[in-house]
Amino acid sequence: MSGTFSSLSGALSALRYNRVAMDVASGNVANAGTAGYARRQVIGQATGAPALPAIWSRWQGAGDGVEPSSVSRMVDPLMDARSRAEHSASSFLDTRSASLVRFETAIAEPGEGGVAAALDNFQSAWHDVANSPGDSAAGTQLLARAETLRSTIATQAQAVSNEWADQRTRLDALGSDVNQTAAQLADLNKGLRSASLSGTDAGTLLDQRDQLTLKLASLTGAAVTVNADTTVDVKVGGQALVTGNTAYAVTVTGSADLAGAATDPVEFSVNGTAVTLPGGEVGAGQQLLNTDLPGYLTKLDSFVATMANAVNTQHALGVDRSGAAGGPLFSGTTAATLQVAITDPLKLAAADPAKGGLDNTNANALANLDMGGTAYRNLVTGFGVTVSSARQTAANQSVLTAQVDASRESLSGINIDEEMVNLLAAQRGYEGASRVLTTMDSMLDTLINRTGLVR
Amino acid sequence: MSSARITQRLMVERSLSSLQLGLGRLSTAQEKLSTGRVINRPSDSPTGTNDAMRLRADLAANAQYSRNADDGSSWLGQADSTMTSMLDSVRRARDLMVQGASTGSAGTDARTALAAELTQIRSGLIDEANTTHLGRPLFGGTTVGPQAYDASGAYVGDTNSINRTVGKGVSVAVNVTGPAAFSSGTDDLFTVLSDAIDQLQNNPSAVSGTLTRLDAVSGSMRNALADIGTRANRIDTATSALASSKLDNTKSLSDVENVDVASAIVDLQMQEVAYQAALGATSRVLQPTLLDFLR
To answer: In what residue span(s) does the Flagellin C-terminal domain sit (chain B) (predicted)?
Structure first.
């Protein structure tokens, strides 16, 4: 049994509801290009009997109208977590592969300008010395090629150091980025908590929250826990970075150059505890700074030490034209410190001490000496494998990340066509409710103004 | 399922990423074609890089071996021509000695004239034995000095051999030392000739005995010449082996490192078509929305 005017209030509720639906649609259209905006959807609910009617009473209403029960944000927390994980892996692999690819071009292999070619030329110069022992032109050529070999090796060592220094500077920048983001998130947590207490619509804050956590995951591979009051806690490498409205400081310490890294290792600390991160850009930076780049340099140094030692040992077995035993041709045992120690081409020990004179036995021995070219080739090939697999995994991961992003977008993204349809539906609904009002109006007009009148 | 839901932004991003992918492939194909190489950095093909570096080292060593062989050939060639010309002189000296032995009774003047000519021949031979190659005495071993024999015909060089590496582990001696070519001690070419000069003047009857010694020396010279020929032959063989190995290595290097132009061009064309198709699809797909049709 409904009252005379209840249909009017039903129509009014429909007008209100459709206004809300139009607001939501227009909000969606307006934010179609906004980064991090999740699509909103208005959920309508028919006004009906209360779940618990008043005592000794019964509900007799019918068609009591509609009300917007909630405006929901179309997100899937599971997908958000997945997206954070994939973005963390993706930024790790992308950062590492970009750095390795950049360094790789500095190796200049295979080609005419690399260490391998310089080593071949150096050995070839020993053949020339063997062909004309005691000839200062051949000796000068040999010393020049030894110098070329030294400088190509030094260039490579320098390239490793430069890349290392770049990554080190980058890690500092990443550290302050993490600090800033964590501080923003802690502030946001405060807002989220009060919004949750007062029951206000916190959609915009939630959009921001998801963006900040995604950024932190990309930076550090952070683990994110969403609490019941919609705030988030973030842990990095097992250490709390954000808890409630507190953000803990991240510090980057340690040597600023590769040479000092052995004694003063680079550390990334959260709240004073050093952590090693498995993902994110910071993780990639740590991997490059602690493993990839120093590892390459160690192998290069070992090749240089082998080469210099082999050459010096063989050279010492011979005598020069004046009969003096050969001194060390190279000094220094690392790529960065290698130097050519002989400057006088007549000091090259080409002869066997037993024969002397213009004998070329020792020069021939040096020309045919194994100077560790195989070790260098293995180094380059091994590095090539590392770079190629880094590139490949980065490419695979970016496909995977793109897929996850696509499924997220598919749920949360705005489709303008759909919003237009929603808008049209709301418009028609509004028009329909107006029609109900007109109908009611004319009905009441008949009832009030015409009933009982006799012409 | 929600995955069926497509939004404008999704399409924009997909378009962008596939355009990016297409452009990336296009740039790779273009790089290959413009550098002419499939391996531009180690990661392009680590195993190929290994092969390329090995082949490059082999090629460099081969080039050097060829230069060593050329150098060795010139040493041996010079020794060969010098010894051939010296053998002619020795033959002339033998004729004179035979003449001196048979005309033993023909009078002192004739023999003195023979001895004078023989003296000329002997000093000519010493000059030839001192022939230098690149400033070094050809028959002096590894001596630092400028001569192999002094003016009196005594050997002043050493007996060391000069070796050239003409292949991996292949070393060839490219010199003949004085004692090996012209004998040593009392049977030395120059001692034999000075004995003959002396005998022609003072003891003609002994010349025939010296003749036998000269024959022994010239025999050893011919042996040395034959030895030089054999070694020159070895170097020639090594040179031709080096040439064919250079050809093989160059071809292998090209197989490993260089681009197959025909397939690279086809690949470039294909990537270009794919890229243009992606561009076309993007331009058509991103335009319309329902708004275009609502009036």
So the answer is: 217-294
Residues from chain B that touch A381, judged by Cβ atoms under 8 A, are: 42, 46-47, 49-50, 53
Kindly write down the DSSP assignment for every residue of A363-385, as one continuous string.
HHHHHT---SHHHHHHHHHHHHH
d(CA A353, CA A323): 7
Q: Give the bridge partners for A239, in sequence order.
A: A236
Comparing alpha-carbon positions, the chain B residue that sits nearest to A75 is B2
Nearest CA in chain B to A424: B294
Asked if A83 and A214 count as a contact pair (C-beta separation under 8 A), the reply is yes
Nearest to B174 by CA among B73, B62, B270: B73
Helix extents (H) in chain B: 8-35, 46-102, 108-129, 178-182, 189-202, 207-257, 261-285
Query: Which of B49, B58, B132, B291 to mutate: most A Cβ within 10 Å?
Result: B49
pLDDT on residue B106:
65
What's chain A's length in residues? 455
Alpha-carbon gap, residue A328 to A136, rounded angstroms: 18
Distance CA B50, CA B35 (A): 19
Place of tokens 């740590």: A286
Put simply, whether B117 touches A (Cβ < 8 Å) is no
pLDDT single digits (tens) B88-125: 999 999 999 888 887 655 678 888 888 999 999 999 99
- In angstroms, the CA B137 to CA B145 distance is 8
A382, closest residue in chain B (CA to CA)? B46
**pLDDT tens digits, residue range A138-191?**
999 999 999 999 999 999 999 999 999 999 999 999 999 999 999 999 999 999
Write phi, then psi, for B114 (nearest 5 degrees).
-60, -45
Predicted pLDDT at A322 = 85
Please, which residues 86-115 of chain B have a Cβ atom closer than 8 Å to chain A? none
With vertex at residue B254, the alpha carbon angle to CA B252 and CA B260, rounded to the nearest 5 degrees, is 125
Partners of residue A356 in chain B, C-beta under 8 Å: 142
CB spacing of B43 vs A127 below 8 angstroms:
no
| Dihedral sign from CA coordinates of A137, A138, A140, A141 | positive
Residue among A382, A410, A417 whose CB faces B3 most closely: A410
Q: Give A197→chain B minimum CA distance, Å.
A: 31
pLDDT, chain A, mean: 91
Cβ-based neighbours of B165, under 8 Å, separated by 6 or more: A127, A130, A364, A367, A368, B65, B68, B171
Helix axes A373-412, B8-35, angle to 10 degrees: 160
The partner residue sitting opposite B60, judged by closest CB among A124, A134, A407, is A124
> What is the pLDDT, as a whole number, of residue B2?
44
Classified as helix, coil or strand, A243 is strand
A110 versus A207: the higher-pLDDT residue is A207
d(CA B93, CA B115) in angstroms, rounded, equals 10
Size of interface A-B (CB pairs under 8 A): 171
- Closest CA relative to residue A320, chosen from A338, A340, A346: A346
pLDDT of residue A51: 75
- B60 to A407: CB separation less than 8 angstroms, yes or no: no
Q: What is the DSSP string of A424-438?
A: HHHHHHHHHHHHHHH
State the complex-level ipTM: 0.85
- Asked if A38 contacts A80 with a C-beta cutoff of 8 angstroms, the reply is no
Residue A1 has pLDDT above 50, yes or no: no
- Report the relative pairing of strands A267-270 and A250-253 from DSSP bridges: antiparallel
Overall average pLDDT of the A402-430 stretch: 91
Give every residue of chain B whose pLDDT is below 50, as ranges: 1-2
Q: How far, CA to CA in Å, does A398 sit from each of A90, A393, B256?
A: 6, 8, 30
